[in-house]
Amino acid sequence: MPTESLAELVHFAPDAYGFRWVNHVAMFVVTNAGVILTDPIGQMNPRTPNLIKEAIRSVTEQPVRYVVYSHSAFDHSTGGAAFADTARFVGHKNAVARIKAAKDPTTPAPDITFDTKMTLELGGRTVDLYPADLSPADDYIVVHYPAGRLAMFVDLVQPRNTPFRTLLGHPERIIERFQWIEDNLDFDVIVSGHATPQMTGTKQDVAEQRRYHVDLSDAIATARAAGLADGSPEMTTRVRSILHPKYGAWRRFDEFLSLNIEGMIAWRAGQSPSAH
User: Fold this and answer.
1) Residues 6+ apart with CB under 8 A from 47
2) Rounded to the nearest 5 degrees, what angle is found at the Cα of 60, between the Cα atoms of 57 and 62?
3) CA 220 to chain centre
4) Cα pseudo-dihedral 142, 20, 162, 172, rounded to 10
5) What does each C-alpha distance from 117 to 92, 94, 131, 152, 191 come to in angstroms?
6) Bridge partners for 19 per DSSP
7) What's the Cα-to-Cα distance from 33 to each of 26, 30, 90, 95, 126, rounded to whole Å?
């Protein structure tokens, strides 16, 4: 039986790396003036931020100057205090209240916030941060490192994974944002923030995630046209029969399909199910 590793350091680009602890992935960019880290991923294992710190030391003597929060969910944001001796903390303005409300001493709230495009410049390198704007309360961001032809959109782009539960934002906005990434960001690799079944994808994976949301919408419309009630077992069965040939092999398809249907209907009805 093969042994599965708990952690690994991976090379995404000449000066960009990922650190994986089980199913969570952090990313960091190394410059000659310091390091830009996205997500300390310390909730599942409180030692992970220090493991990331040691991994960074294995490739550079430069300290972490910025810790970027991809969003406020604690499986990704916990543990940034391990870098507080050298770093400032960056995140969407909507993430501040959520992180402060947790009163977790290991997780500093962002002291640099934004809700429009923001660029971090360090050591002659730039990392662009874009709000995802998936809903008015959303605090997800898209990270783009142009020199490394690298992007990161945590949770939303997980190759060959059905979207999480009741969707992480308004479906029309998710579709628009995926299209915007395809059309406007120059990258070869996109990092998902998770490692199952793989931690990175390509523009094709972004397109496939966009297409899933479109196909789900069309399948719900087909079920409604057949007189099936929203959220009913009969609707789920009909939608499953339409989507299964294309998406049935995706991870979590059977587990989350009914929740995806529920979420798409709820978001469109203005009920805004929780995105976290």
Assistant:
1) none
2) 95
3) 26
4) -10
5) 10, 14, 7, 15, 19
6) 9, 26
7) 20, 8, 17, 27, 12
At 7-19, the pLDDT tens digits run 999 999 999 999 9
Which band of pLDDT confidence, cut at 50, 70 and 90, is reported for residue 66? very high
Measured between alpha carbons, how far is 58 from 156 in angstroms, rounded to an integer?
Answer: 30
231, two tokens:
């959220």
The vertex-37 CA angle with 102 and 64, nearest 5°, equals 100
Q: 26 pairs with which residues across the strands?
A: 19
Separation CA 249–CA 251 (nearest Å): 6
pLDDT in tens, 157-175: 999 999 999 999 999 999 9
Tokens of 62: 């430069």
pLDDT of 262 higher than 60: yes
99-119 per-position pLDDT tens digit: 999 999 999 999 999 999 999
Q: What tokens were used for 110?
A: 């962002």
CA 275/CA 140 separation, integer angstroms = 10
- Output the DSSP codes for 42-85: -SS-TTHHHHHHHHHHTT-SPPEEEEE-S-S-HHHHTTGGGGTT
- The answer to whether 79 and 89 are in contact (CB under 8 A) is no
Three-state secondary structure of 245-258 = HHHCCCECHHHHHH
Residue 219: other Cβ atoms inside 10 A: 20
